[in-house]
Design brief:
By secondary structure, this protein is mainly alpha-helical. It has 2 domains: 84 residues, no CATH class; 34 residues, no CATH class. It contains 7 helices and 2 strands. A two-stranded antiparallel ribbon has the order 1-2. The longest helix is centred in the first third of the chain and has 28 residues.
């Protein structure tokens, strides 16, 4: 009986030579990596519904520091340990900002009325942070208002 064989998979480029005694272990880690990848991609898609799957894939590869050549066990462990809370919050804020800008272009008066009602529901600290962020001329053009408010809250 041969001690090694090529195990073929359904995806392009996933056929690799392996020892039969390691086949179950490799399948286990490949499956765990795939489940962790799918879960993370779902979180990113939920946070940024307008983004493409390609963008989310590149973002996840960058955040987890994994790619197609990464050992499946290493990839699974990195993906499972990855905390996407901050990234998801930023993606949601960016998505909301883009939607608000699009709505503002459609109907400025309705947008202003909505913002005034929104401000009425903020706490005094949040109102102060928002006022500071709006008045701040030191804020860089690429810095989100959410980031500016968060930074103001840390002071």
């Amino acid at each position: 009986m041969p001690t090694s064989a090529t195990v073929l998979g359904g995806s392009k480029g996933c056929a690799r030579p392996m020892v039969w005694k390691d086949a179950r272990r490799r399948f286990y880690w490949s499956l765990r990596a795939k489940v962790a990848w799918s879960s993370a991609m779902e979180q990113l898609a939920e946070a940024s519904p307008g983004s493409t799957a390609e963008y989310r894939s590149r973002l996840l590869e960058s955040l987890a520091e994994v790619d197609a050549s990464t050992d499946r066990r290493v990839a699974a462990e990195k993906l499972e340990a990855l905390d996407l809370c901050a990234t998801a919050a930023q993606l949601k804020a960016d998505h909301l900002m883009r939607r608000m800008l699009a709505l503002a272009q459609e109907d400025r008066k309705a947008t202003m009325n909505g913002l005034i009602r929104l401000v009425d529901n903020l706490s005094d600290d949040e109102k102060s942070a928002l006022a500071g962020a709006l008045a701040s001329s030191s804020r860089s053009p690429g810095m989100s208002v959410t980031h500016a408010i968060t930074e103001k809250g840390r002071d």
